[in-house]
Write a structure and sequence with these properties.
Distance between the termini: 33 Å
CATH topology of the largest domain: Rossmann fold
Helix content: 25-40%
Largest sheet: 7 strands, mixed
Radius of gyration: 25 Å
Oligomer: single chain
Shape: elongated
Number of domains: 2
CATH architecture of the largest domain: 3-Layer(aba) Sandwich
Strand content: 5-15%
């Protein structure tokens, strides 16, 4: 393997080879996490167009999609047509020397492409096959398509997002996709650990619907154990007051009072000591009951100063500015936590991407290699892993079974897709 192809060789997942058949967000986010941790990720893409995300934009940076580059660092691109017998045969040879496969096709498509678990475990009994789909491999909706926004709606997450009595509002980040990708990575690492004891691989079935239902957390508990159907609260909390956004003279800030100790200190700091003794606000349960009386009082208080002035006064009380994304990404805390990484892309030059939130005591194996161009590593992988000669590789390229180095040009797709 050439030096260019070595990705995260010293990380905790060093030595794990992942064949990545995924596209758009959920699957690529999963495999990016594995790649960040040192796994060798081979992204297998259609030769013409590649991952659908390559065409999503604007913005494009020298022809490369920022959307695509957000989910595909630490991978190598093998552009290969899985719909041909020759393409499937190449993949099966790679499966012999791989540990994990990940795909996010609708149920049944993997079988048609010859990358389903029953097929692959006959080739390699140690293989771990992770399938990510909208609704999973079973159930009445298993064959239905789904994108993040439809999963947010179906899961109930959208029903508690937004202001009371407002039209439906989706969560700003694609949480269904991201949660699905995170659970997939969690499942894969668990299966790798189990394989150390059993010597056998297994199939992993990840549903984006399941992933977001699991994120309902205490909201689900309110219904399951109390029969209460949660409703949207805006920035407020159904069981804590005050715990929401307040408009200052210039910006919104968040105040989060969780304990009585914080409540008393908060009232003293803002010059409203009388609220402490008011029986309507004596404890959190009382404040929840009389929310409609307390919040207008506090709103008038916060309108008297700027956000910066209030945040200085509230030091020691859980509070924060409601940052826009540019302010967040330029914040000293973001940089102190190394949540912005600079990498050099072969076509775009220097680009910045989000860092990895997993902080191990030994970070020496973490690396940030640029998202690959379509087919950038095809020749290298076929040569080094499968022993193909330059002539054989050229022959496959001429038959359009593979694509050798190059970049996909954006199509007419514009805006943002949800998955």
């Amino acid at each position: 393997m050439g030096e260019e192809g070595k990705v995260g060789q010293l990380g905790p997942l060093s030595g794990v080879r992942v064949l990545d058949f995924t596209r758009v967000i959920a699957g690529p986010f999963c495999t990016m996490m594995l790649g960040d941790l040192g796994a060798e990720v081979i992204k297998i893409e259609p030769p013409h167009g590649g991952d659908d995300a390559r065409a999503v934009g604007p913005p494009f940076v020298k022809g490369e999609s920022a959307y695509f580059m957000s989910f595909n660092r630490n991978k190598r691109s093998l552009a290969l047509n899985l719909k041909t017998p020759e393409g499937r045969a190449l993949v099966h040879r790679l499966v012999e020397q791989s540990d994990v496969t990940v795909e996010n096709f609708r149920p049944g498509i993997g079988t048609k492409l010859g990358i389903d678990y029953p097929t692959l475990k006959e080739i390699n009994p140690r293989i771990i096959c992770c399938s990510i789909s909208a609704f999973g491999q079973t159930g009445p909706l298993s064959n239905e398509p789904g994108y993040d926004i439809t999963i947010q709606a179906m899961s109930g997450a959208m029903s508690i997002t937004g202001e009371p009595d407002s039209p439906p509002v989706k969560i700003g980040v694609p949480l269904g996709d991201i949660a699905g990708g995170m659970y997939a990575a969690y499942g894969i690492i668990s299966a790798l650990y189990a394989r150390e004891h059993t010597g056998q691989g297994q199939a992993i079935d990840i549903s984006l619907y399941d992933a977001l239902v699991a994120q309902l957390s205490y909201h689900a508990g309110y219904y399951l154990m109390g029969g209460v159907i949660p409703q949207p609260q805006g920035t407020g909390h159904p069981n804590l007051v005050p715990y929401q956004a307040f408009k200052t003279r210039d910006i919104y800030i968040i105040v989060a009072i969780f304990t009585e100790e914080f409540w008393q200190k908060f009232c003293q700091i803002i010059g409203k000591e009388g609220l402490i003794q008011d029986p309507r606000f004596k404890d959190n349960a009382s404040r929840v009951k009389h929310r409609y009386l307390l919040i207008p009082i506090l709103e008038k208080v916060f309108e008297t100063k700027t956000g910066e002035e209030w945040l200085a006064i509230l030091k020691g009380i859980p509070s924060a500015p409601l940052n826009t994304i540019d302010r967040t990404l330029n914040h000293p805390q973001t940089h102190a936590r190394q949540m912005i990484e600079n990498i050099c892309h072969p076509q775009c030059g220097d680009i910045r991407v989000l860092g990895n939130p997993v902080k191990l005591s030994d970070m020496s194996g973490f690396s940030f290699k640029p998202p690959p161009l379509l087919g950038q590593h095809t020749e290298e992988i076929l040569r080094d892993y499968l022993g193909y000669s330059p002539e054989a590789i050229t022959g496959l390229a001429n038959k359009r079974i593979i694509k050798i180095k190059g970049s996909v040009q954006p199509s007419a797709i514009s805006g943002q897709l949800d998955k």
